[in-house]
Design brief:
By secondary structure, the protein is of the alpha+beta class. It has a single domain, classed as Trna Endonuclease, Chain: A, domain 1 (3-Layer(aba) Sandwich), CATH 3.40.1350. 25% of the residues lie in helices and 36% in strands. The protein contains two helices and five strands; from the N terminus they run H-E-E-E-H-E-E. The protein has helices at residues 2-16, 79-95; strands at 20-28, 31-39, 42-52, 104-114, 119-125. Strands 1-2-3-4-5 form a five-stranded mixed sheet.
Length: 130
């Protein structure tokens, strides 16, 4: 549920910045692209990582709060994840008969939700390399 909410926030964020959403939750056996969007002719494949500001670990310790972040959410986009994302991107490009000259990039959106305050913040890591 929190993941879908984060994706919704990410899509609103993109649309406010002039992106057109092409697809959502594109799945293949080796991976999933959360959002595919286009702006000024370039395709953006977007991995969305969402965290609640009130998130706590099993031990009851705060993982994230508004003043101190004890780990970085984007660290969950590791080499194995990047590999599956790039395989999925290649499948999409081939399946949709996208021209080989088409510009594209992989972006990561980290969405921080504060459910109590009903606010969200999106951090963007652009053009992530594999």
């Amino acid at each position: 549920m929190i993941g879908k909410l984060g994706e919704d926030v990410s899509i609103k964020f993109l649309m406010k910045r002039g992106f057109a959403v092409v697809a959502r939750n594109y799945r293949k056996k080796y991976g999933e692209i959360d959002v595919i969007a286009k702006k000024t002719g370039k395709l953006h494949f977007i991995e969305v990582k969402t965290v609640s500001c009130e998130m706590v670990s099993r031990e009851g310790k705060t993982i994230i709060n508004n003043s101190k972040q004890l780990f970085r959410v984007e660290e969950n986009v590791h080499q194995k994840k990047l590999h599956s994302l790039f395989l999925t991107i290649q499948a999409y490009l081939a399946e949709q008969f996208v021209d080989k000259e088409q510009e594209w990039q992989l972006d990561v959106h980290v969405v921080y939700l504060d459910v109590r305050k009903k606010t969200a913040k999106v951090d963007v890591l652009e053009n992530v390399a594999y």
